[in-house]
Amino acid sequence: MKKVVQKPPLGRKPRFKRVPFRLIAPNVVTLLALSSGLTSIRFSMEGRIDWAIAAIVIAAVLDGLDGRVARLLRSTSRFGAELDSLADFVNFGVAPALLLYTWSLHEMKSLGWIAAILFAIATALRLARFNVMLDDTEKPKWQSMFFVGIPSPAGAIIVLLPVYLSQLGLVPAAGAGFEPAIASFVLVLAFMVASRLPAFSGKGGGIRVSRDLFFPVLIGAVLMAALLVSYPYEVLSTMTIAYLASVPIAWHLWRRYERAEAAGGAPVDEIEER
């Protein structure tokens, strides 16, 4: 007996809509970053500290790309923003906390675990506040020049500073009794991440590169990447210390712009043009 196949009525919409690739591309980058962060956790549990750090750095690079890809393709979405926040919590909250615990903080038993947990929680609180602040459309334009609190990717790179210095032989290795100092550093950085301390965002100020400097800047970026691959701990230590040194400068500028706004002075974009 021949089977009769029922055809859908004419004009009926397909069950699943086709989604343009430009809407998927940023989320693919985010998922690649999440995969790198999860792989860092695996390397930490296996004691492969070098690879665990490399995976977090790769996740940070990809995290910086997904938003730019979304804006370039005009494919920003609320789904992408939420996915990015969840990935950031794993990549820059959980992964570095577990790396520090398996590398050194486990020597302090529960106290080391508490320090690691507090850093991960601080990252979650910072990301939640960031998502809420996205809905604030009335904030002054000059505030786009700053992050509120140390951003989670930078926090993940900075909190691993004791590991970099230990690999360079500048601080005692894990198990040498240096754990209380490491835990104190982790707690201080957790406070900086969750606080309202301003930090430079690199999104404001009208920074432009002239055509004459385009190729030197490009060569400088390639050189920085080559140095990072060849001398990872030296470069990461230098970048981390430089970023920490910029925090007081950011706080000073924030206060300056805040006072100028309270006094009814010129907007920041006009100040920067002078």
Write up what this structure looks like.
- The chain is mostly helical and 274 residues long.
- The protein has one domain: CDP-alcohol phosphotransferase transmembrane (TM) domain (Four Helix Bundle (Hemerythrin (Met), subunit A), Up-down Bundle).
- Helix content is 68%, strand content 2%.
- Strands 1-2 form a two-stranded antiparallel ribbon.
- The radius of gyration is 23 Å and the shape is globular.
- Mean pLDDT is 84; it is low at 270-274.
In brief, what are we looking at here?
The protein has 274 residues and is mainly α. It has helices spanning 21-45, 49-72, 78-103, 110-133, 152-159, 161-167, 179-194, 211-230, 232-262, 268-273, and strands at residues 146-148, 198-200.
Low-confidence stretches: 270-274
Helix content: 55-70%
Main β-sheet description: 2 strands, antiparallel
The tally of beta strands, per DSSP, is 2
Helices, by number, come to 10
- The CATH class is identified as Mainly Alpha
**CATH architectural type:** Up-down Bundle
Q: Strand order within the widest sheet?
A: 1-2
Order of helices and strands: HHHHEHHHEHHH
Mean pLDDT: 84
Domains (count): 1
Features:
274 residues; mainly alpha; Four Helix Bundle (Hemerythrin (Met), subunit A); two-stranded antiparallel sheet; disordered C terminus
Q: What is the element layout, followed by pairings?
A:
Blueprint: H1 21-45, H2 49-72, H3 78-103, H4 110-133, E1 146-148, H5 152-159, H6 161-167, H7 179-194, E2 198-200, H8 211-230, H9 232-262, H10 268-273
Helix pairs in contact: 1-2, 1-3, 2-3, 2-5, 3-4, 3-5, 4-7, 5-7, 6-9, 8-9
